[in-house]
TrEMBL record:
Belongs to the mitochondrion-specific ribosomal protein mS33 family. Residues 67-94 are annotated as: Disordered. Signal peptide: none annotated. It comes from Bathycoccus prasinos. The keyword Lipoprotein does not apply. Residues 68-83 have a biased composition (Basic residues). Residues 84-94 have a biased composition (Basic and acidic residues). Keywords: Mitochondrion, Ribonucleoprotein, Ribosomal protein. Pfam families: MRP-S33. This is Small ribosomal subunit protein mS33. GO terms for cellular component: mitochondrion; ribonucleoprotein complex; ribosome.
Amino acid sequence: MSSIASANKKKIALVAARIFQTALNDTNAPTGRKLLKKALVGPRLTSWYPEGIRKMDMLFEDPDDKRRKVKLERMKRRGKGPPKKGEGKRAKKK
């Protein structure tokens, strides 16, 4: 009876793997999935992403960068911009 049950379990596992598109590893052999799931580091990480758009088109202007510059200019006019070098909080304490 147990051989029939184990055969049915194998068939069910095979059908489930086919339905959910997963790999069936009934022999528990090492597959290397841990290595493939590991985060990319170093040159592999940089080769994964395409070249930046700034390098491809020199006339491209990032909208976020443009918005940041406009906001900084507005704050400078109100006197709320960043202090000049050597005029920060730490220099005022002395």
